[in-house]
Each structure stands twice: as C-alpha cells, then as structure tokens.
Write a structure and sequence with these properties.
Keywords: Antibiotic, Antimicrobial, Disulfide bond, Endonuclease, Hydrolase, Nuclease, Secreted, Signal. By secondary structure, this protein is an alpha+beta fold. The protein is built from four helices and four strands, in the order H-H-H-E-H-E-E-E. It has one domain: Ribonuclease A-like domain (P-30 Protein), CATH 3.10.130.10.
Amino acid sequence: MAMQKIGSLFLLLALLGLWLVQPSSGQNRRYQQFLRQHVDPSSEGGDSTYCNQMMHRRRMTEPRCKPVNSFIHEDIWNINSICRTTDIRCKNGQMNCHEGIMKTTDCRVTGGSTSPNCRYRAMTRTRHVVIACEDLLPVHFDR
C-alpha cells in the first residue's frame, strides 16, 4: 500500500513538472510545425523519391507546392542543442538565430510541378544550418 502511494505521488510530481515546463501554446505550435516540416531523424535522406514522398506526407504540397524545404536527419536532442549556441542574425534581421552542422536533405520543386502532384529534386549533404529559436526550442529553419 505504501509503495502504491509513493508511485502515485511520483506520477503526480512528474506530470506537474511536465506541465510547468510546457512552452506557451503559440510557441508549442511553432515548434510542432518546425518538427513536422523539417525533422526526419529516422532517415538518412535520399533522392527525388524521398522528397516527393516526404513533402506530400508532411502536407507541403497543398494548396500549392512549397518551393524549397530542408529535412534534418539528426535526433531532436542534437537539433535542440543548436539553440544553446551563440545568437546570430537571422535573414529577417532578428538576433534569435543559431547555427550548427547537420545532415540534411534539401528538396526543391521542379519546374512545371503543380499541386497536389508536386515533384522535387533532392540534395543530401552535411552542411551548416541556421535555425531561429524561442525559449531554447527551434521554431524556424532560416537557411
């Protein structure tokens, strides 16, 4: 009986801790969108087939073909750690960007593609990336 109470207390404290560190709903939405659009740790990337499938699967082919998108092939802990590096200037002039080296697949729409049957070219490589962060969470792939 005592062990059951201790277990229940531990669960309650763990849930309370998670609630206290939750990002704001607006920030959480931006972080979740960043994950959906840019993070694929389970893959090494690939060719045009990879881009065509992922862009469609991640809902970036409607209502129009997203012209360019990059997928990062690192675990989320490595990606989040970029937010702890020195601030640098983003393309929009803000100073909440950070850089690191990551394995990526860059997908670029091919000429003549129309939604929802978008077609993409792929380039997989390890390169510098720049990511905007809010409260130590990535929210925008800057370049």
